Amino acid sequence: MSAKGVGTFVNIIAICKEATDVINLVSRAGKDLTKREVTLVDQSGASIIWTLWGEEAQKFKSSEQPVVLLKGAKIGEFAGGKTLGASTMKLNPDIPESHNLLEWFKTGGHQKDVKSLSCTNGNFFTEWAFVNDINPSGQFKSKSPGFYRIKASIKKIIPDYYEACINTGCYKKVSERNGTYKCIKCNNESTEFIYSVLINMCIDDWTSECGAIGFSEVSEKLFKKNSNEIIEMIRNNSINTVIKDLKFQQRVFKYHEYNEMLISNIERLTDLKINKAESMDITTDSQNEPMEILKENESMDITRVGRSNNFLDRRSS
Prior knowledge:
Pfam families: Rep_fac-A_C (PF08646), REPA_OB_2 (PF16900). This is CLUMA_CG001173, isoform A. It is found in: Nucleus. There is one protein chain. Strands 1-3-4-6-5 form a 5-stranded mixed beta barrel. Strands 10-14-15-17-16 form a 5-stranded mixed β-barrel. The chain has helices at 54-59, 96-106, 216-223, 227-235, 239-246, 282-285, 290-296, 311-316, and strands at residues 9-19, 23-26, 32-41, 46-53, 67-78, 81-84, 88-91, 115-116, 127-129, 146-164, 174-177, 180-183, 189-190, 194-204, 209-214, 250-257, 272-278, 302-303, 308-309. The protein is globular, with a radius of gyration of 21 Å. It is α+β, with helices and mostly antiparallel strands. Mean pLDDT is 73; it is low at 120-125, 258-270, 282-288, 291-303 and 307-317.
């Protein structure tokens, strides 16, 4: 992939290592857009970001970490790195290469260090930052939009839940009128809704403190419960014991810094929107302390993320 030029169309088989939540944007023409950025990896030791839009972005289940076969994916360029655009995709294809890739991933491949072809400043979600790097609008000072990690302690955490839109990937709050629930974002009207968990936090490191919010996925990771269990604990006040245990614990918070010009004018970022909250990985995080990282940064050919492979041609011949 690294040898392929921007604008080239490639076919690729790789596995989803991780992905962002659905990102809601507004185009310059005022049109609502949704996208999801998926990190694909393979045995070559490289990764690349694959961007999904619209319904595909909403329906993609990154938690299942599927094998992805792409046909006709266009290589794009963003911030000096390479990305993959729209294409025909098939998830978990029943072919030997897919099985081999899945076996590699499950037997240690997911822990391998990879070189990102999409980021000039390192791996996906690997740019370290400090709380003091964040300005009042929820964006990083003097940093380009991207993915960052903050190692911080949980100073305060307040869980809550709300009635949310049933559309996949939306989860915006709905308003009820005469038994019908209407989403203020996608205008979907339904007699049903789902409960979504929202947590408000104050996190801090040695530089400063800031507000942060997380939704169901982050809440489930922190509380080690599913959303229904968390909501039940909120209702019967048993959540307070778990909150007490979480206070002052350190976590690695993964955060996507958005370009504010693309955010809906109805909403404005005032807190960090956390994509993931993970326990400290001693073997990884101790070797890549934020200070050290910041100092350093002052025919149908299947194309591997890091090398070429023509197995589909061989199969079709």
